[in-house]
UniProtKB/TrEMBL annotation:
Residues 92-119 are annotated as: Disordered. It holds the Pfam family SecG. Belongs to the SecG family. One of its GO terms (biological process) is intracellular protein transmembrane transport. GO terms for cellular component: plasma membrane. It is a multi-pass membrane protein. NCBIfam families: secG (TIGR00810). InterPro entries: SecG. This is Protein-export membrane protein SecG. Keywords: Cell membrane, Membrane, Protein transport, Translocation, Transmembrane, Transmembrane helix, Transport. The chain crosses the membrane at residues 6-24, 58-76.
Amino acid sequence: MSTFTIFLILIILVSFLLVVVVMVQNPKGGGLSSSFGGGGTQQMGGVKKTTDFLDKSTWALATLLLALILISNFAIPGAGGNTESKIISGEQTIESAPATPMATPAQADDTATPADSTN
């Protein structure tokens, strides 16, 4: 399995987890925390401040997703190619070799024009 495939699987997994965490939250502040004893209050033996946990996990997953996407850019197949310009280094390929100029009809004619015969 290539490095890019591993990053791709991790990105999909983190994206799915981020969707789940965002969907659990209530847009008006209730969400999962309201079902565990009211909004913003602490529970006796359970999770404390669930809204803080969901908020922090959302930011952590979003940051992780961004980092994975940026790092996976280095693992894309074929992305590490030669970035130096062949023109600057002086190399010429067959396609970029300069062609000999074609003779125009005026140059092919051996007769001199009056403008050419000035001494």
